[in-house]
Design goal:
The complex is a heterodimer of chains A (274) and B (263). Chain A has 10 helices and 10 strands. Chain A is α/β, with parallel strands linked by helices. In chain A, helix 6 links the parallel strand 7 and strand 8. Chain B has 263 residues and is mainly α. Chain B contains 10 helices and no strands. Classes of the chains: A alpha/beta (274), B mainly alpha (263). The interface between A and B is medium-sized, with 20 and 15 residues.
């Protein structure tokens, strides 16, 4: 079955207890593309990623990956699907008791019966791709933040996944490391013939490397388009995001009572806060 | 209208505790069902036996020696009042094999290895390592939790046995070498009075039960911890405190079944 879209999400809904997080997301991710999902902190981006990876069960709607509906799968089915997925966590999530080499070798050793000599070759290839072949014997604690992220990236692509997911890949990196990670995401995606989904709020870097962008606010897709569309967009939310303005459609204030009432009590109602 | 807030709180707490006990029981079953990896890939479990068993040896052996020394002194002092200092070996051996060996070794094991296991798993959770493993289609219960559980369960009886041996050695050191109780009487009385099934085997059963309890509590508290610095520290405290209470309570139950005089 050939399908131009690796992932199709229809009317996806998710709630933590009673607090709705995703309220009807529709999304299509084309094969071979890099798609960014953007939005303010706490808008449900990471939740969406967790739903695609099957770590969270949606309350409604459907997610189809590779023609398989994720929300109907049992544990074994999800594990079978995840062997074709790689995920880069926000801070790398390297195994702190294993060396760089063993971290990258971990998925290979768990899922294949390859001889150790072949695993060595594969690990060194992945480490070479992220420029860290020389750091193979270090422990995660001896790496800088950017290097740890690159090792985690090598580990995420160890099994040559069809889908790579990035959870905030740029957070907490200096501008040089940030550029390196951005270029690696682009290069690995085309070298592996993979599809990438990136959850991020770093608009400038994303505009350089992705093919398509979805903006999410309050659990809904509020804008979408190619980087050129986004740059030219006059949608107020997109403009606020691209120009990094503090207030706009995405409010600066958490909804609350009138400030004067909060400060001086109920008899201050009607008072003007100057 | 009387205020039932206290009763309501009491009820709520009780329900919470029972709920947690239920979650822990389900977790225990999940560990048993997912033990295949830990047993098939035995180096994973051997590694945990090294960390929780072998690295606990020093504290277990030293404590065992001191407990034996004290038992020798106190035992001699009490027994001579009744003119039965020849029973010193019997007293030392029985108190260690039946009670002190399993119980004190269990308490030390909980504070040395149980806390380390809870901390390690809790930190792996807080740094998303368990989630990352899960996303790589590797079940953290099978790969991380089960080997640590079995490592603890296997280590504990050996540690308790070594504790008892060291204790008996300490009793001998005080009684025979320092005080001068007759050595032949010390050993032959012990040999005659200690029954393999009734005393030794029951002590081993106790240490296995404590090993299961401490290991389960440690892995559960670590796995169930809040993924924050505060949550991990609370999990470690709970692992040690709950283990200690569980050991003492289980010891009472087991003793009342094992060593009850038949009427």
């Amino acid at each position: 079955m050939s399908d131009d879209f690796l992932i199709r999400i229809e009317n996806l809904q998710f709630a933590y207890d009673a607090r709705p997080v995703l309220q009807g997301i529709d999304m299509r991710i084309p094969r071979g593309g890099i798609v960014a999902i953007m939005g303010g902190s706490g808008c449900g981006k990471t939740t969406l990623l967790r739903c695609i990876g099957g770590q969270l069960k949606p309350a409604g709607g459907s997610i189809r990956v590779h023609g398989v509906t994720v929300n109907n799968l049992d544990q074994a089915g999800i594990y079978a699907l995840r062997r074709h997925m790689g995920m880069l966590f926000q801070f790398g999530a390297l195994f702190t008791d294993l060396s760089v080499f063993d971290n990258v070798a971990f998925p290979l050793r768990e899922h294949t019966d390859l001889p150790e000599s072949l695993i060595r070759d594969l690990v060194l290839m992945k480490l070479e791709a992220v420029g860290l072949r020389g750091a193979r014997d270090r422990m995660p604690a001896e790496l800088s933040g950017g290097m740890a992220r690159r090792v985690a990236l090598a580990r995420a692509v160890a099994l040559d996944p069809a889908l790579i997911m990035y959870d905030e890949p740029f957070t907490g990196l200096d501008p040089i490391s940030l550029g390196i990670i951005g270029q690696l995401i682009r290069r690995l995606n085309s070298a592996l013939g993979a599809t990438s989904i990136m959850v991020t709020h770093d608009i400038q870097e994303s505009l350089l490397i992705v093919d398509y962008i979805y903006f999410i606010a309050a659990g809904k897709v509020v804008a979408e388009g190619t980087p050129d569309d986004i740059r030219r967009s006059d949608d107020p939310f997109v403009r606020q995001f691209v120009r990094a303005e503090a207030d706009g459609p995405a409010p600066f204030h958490v909804p609350s009572e009138n400030f004067a009432v909060d400060l001086f009590g109920a008899d201050a109602r009607g008072m003007q806060y100057a | 209208m009387p205020d039932f807030a206290f009763l309501r709180r009491l009820g709520g707490n009780t329900v919470d505790r029972l709920w947690r006990l239920g979650v822990a029981s389900r977790f225990f079953v999940a560990i048993l069902l997912n033990s295949g990896t830990a047993l098939r890939r035995y180096p994973l479990t051997f590694r945990e036996i090294w960390f929780s068993g072998v690295l606990s040896l020093v504290i277990i052996l030293v404590s065992g020696l001191f407990v034996g020394l004290v038992l020798g002194m106190q035992g001699y002092e009490i027994l001579t009042r009744y003119g039965s200092d020849t029973a010193l070996g019997v007293m030392v051996a029985l108190s260690l094999l039946r009670e002190l060996g399993p119980v004190i070794a269990g308490l030390l094991f909980a504070s040395r290895a149980g806390s380390a296991i809870a901390a390690e798993i809790g930190l792996m959770k807080a740094t998303e390592q368990l989630k990352a493993m899960d996303m790589m289609a590797v079940d953290p219960v099978a790969r991380v939790v089960a080997p640590r559980f079995w490592g603890g369960v296997i280590s504990m009886p050996f540690l308790a046995a070594l504790f008892s041996c060291m204790g008996i050695f300490g009793g001998w050191l005080i009684g025979v070498v320092m005080i001068g109780v007759d050595e032949g009487v010390f050993w032959s009385q012990m040999q005659a009075a200690v029954d393999f099934r009734h005393d030794v085997l029951n002590g081993v059963i106790k240490s296995v039960v404590f090993g299961v309890a401490v290991s389960l509590i440690a892995v559960f508290e670590g796995y169930d911890s809040e993924p924050t610095a505060e949550g991990v520290s609370r999990a470690i405290t709970r692992a040690v405190v709950t283990s200690a209470l569980a050991i003492l309570a289980l010891d009472f139950v087991l003793t009342s079944f094992m060593f009850r005089e038949s009427p």
